[in-house]
Design brief:
There is one protein chain. The protein has a single domain, classed as Rossmann fold (3-Layer(aba) Sandwich), CATH 3.40.50. It starts with a strand and ends with a helix. The chain is 37% helix and 22% strand. The chain has a 7-stranded mixed beta sheet, with helices on both faces. It is built from 6 helices and 7 strands, in the order E-H-E-E-E-H-E-E-H-E-H-H-H. A hairpin with a 2-residue loop joins strand 2 and strand 3.
């Protein structure tokens, strides 16, 4: 079985520690813990890792968050991965920092990366793992907030939460989406 796990983020050093790059951060942590490295490939940075007989293709699109659909579609087709084996990891301002919410499908919730993936794939029927980044911003400053760097307090909490996200990703591929949601949505 093969799975495509896509972390949403923006390429470039200026974005590396921003809330909008949480998807990239989660995949970087998983790759590091699994002793694999990303290579620059078509539409993104890609690596493969094996876990319990499954292959996880990790993708960090190089198309910027708002245009992630092209990269996701390309790698689903290239790797012959069905859309039900797609998991998109992204930031969510509707959740407190560090909270994980996994869903089998759903709306884009105002996230332009999901909006583009939905449009390109022509469906919202794919799994997503939302990682809470909080909403500590005043009206009209959402973009500044999500493109702002993580606070020292958030950075302290991040390693433990990254570990939970890595566990949830492997769980998605091994015990299935429903059981993974039941377990990790309550953490």
């Amino acid at each position: 079985m093969k799975y495509l796990v896509t972390g949403l983020g923006n390429i470039g050093e200026e974005y590396s520690n921003t809330r909008h790059n949480v998807g990239f951060m989660m995949l970087d942590a998983l790759a590091k813990a699994s002793n694999v490295t990303f290579t620059d490939s078509r539409y993104g940075f890609v690596t493969n890792l094996k876990h319990k007989g499954r292959t996880f293709v990790l993708l960090k699109p190089s198309t910027y968050v708002n245009l992630s659909g092209k990269a996701v579609n390309y790698w689903l087709q290239k790797e012959k991965i069905p859309v039900e084996n797609l998991l998109v990891v992204l930031d969510d301002i509707a959740l407190p920092f560090g909270k994980i919410r996994i869903r089998a499908r759903g709306s884009d919730g105002g996230h332009n990366g999901l909006k583009n993936i939905d449009a390109v794939l022509g469906t919202q029927e794919y799994a997503r793992l939302r990682f809470g980044v909080g909403n500590n911003f005043s009206k009209g400053h959402q973009i500044d907030y999500v493109l702002g760097e993580l606070s020292d307090e958030e950075l302290k909490v991040l390693p433990e939460r990254m570990e939970k996200v890595s566990e949830a990703i492997f769980s998605f591929g091994t015990i299935g989406l429903e059981r993974t949601m039941n377990f990790y949505n309550n953490i």
